[in-house]
Amino acid sequence: MIKVVIFDLDDTLISEKLYIESGYRHISELLSLRVNKDDQEIYGLLIELFKKSPKNVFNRVLDRLGVIYTKKNIIELVEEYRNHLPRINFFEDVLPCLKDLKKKGIKVGIITDGYANAQRQKLKAVKAINYFDEIVVTDEIGRKYWKPHPKAFEMMKEKLNVEFNEMIYVGDNPEKDFFIANIYPISTTRIYRDGFYRDKVYLENIKETNAIFDLRELKVLIN
After folding, report:
1. Does residue 72 sit in the same domain as residue 31?
2. Residue 63's domain is classified under what CATH number?
3. pTM of this structure
4. Boundary-marking domain end, from 83, 99, 128
5. What span, in angstroms and rounded, lies between the C-alpha atoms of 63 and 207?
6. How far apart are CA 167 and CA 161, in angstroms?
7. Which residues, in sequence order, are bridge partners of residue 211?
8. Both 45 and 143 in a single domain?
9. How many Cα atoms sit within 13 Å of 123 on the Cβ side?
10. pLDDT tens, 3-54?
11. Above 90 in pLDDT, residue 196?
12. Given CA atoms 29, 119, 179, 169 in this order, what sign does their dihedral have?
């Protein structure tokens, strides 16, 4: 019997693309004041550079703008990006899904990787604390505990007082979200989103138990 459903965050509950766009809007507004350029022009340039490669985007945008900068300047921009409060929302199927699960008496949680300050700002933006029973940001317990490490799942088991075989984990990234089933008897579900991780290769070819295209399909799986 399923008692808990745990969710990944990025491209499972929220759009990573919208988060990046929000961060670049914030950075473009900051740079606009510093380099006396139109913020929309800078934003468009950031998006263009990111599409070519997600690496060193801030260095490259300053190069294109002809701005002299130091390593400290780049670090400051990265911190501004990670600490900004993003303009994001849950995907439209999230809250109906959570409502269905709560009606069944099923507890819900989040396990998310990524830099702690950025993940906490995402969670704050969507008011996740109002909807989830437990949230584990793996970076807060140590970078080595990012998925596919089982530590966060062990914490959820203790916090929510359930057995592993009473848990479902829902994620989108084949590189790390489904490997937990090779360690503990946790059922895994892949949500197919138009996200960054859709075409990643499965870690050790460990695949999900089930696949869905809308989180509202979870109630059917649980039934």
Report:
1. yes
2. 1.10.150
3. 0.95
4. 83
5. 42
6. 11
7. 190
8. no
9. 24
10. 999 999 999 999 999 999 999 999 999 999 988 899 999 999 999 999 999 9
11. no
12. negative
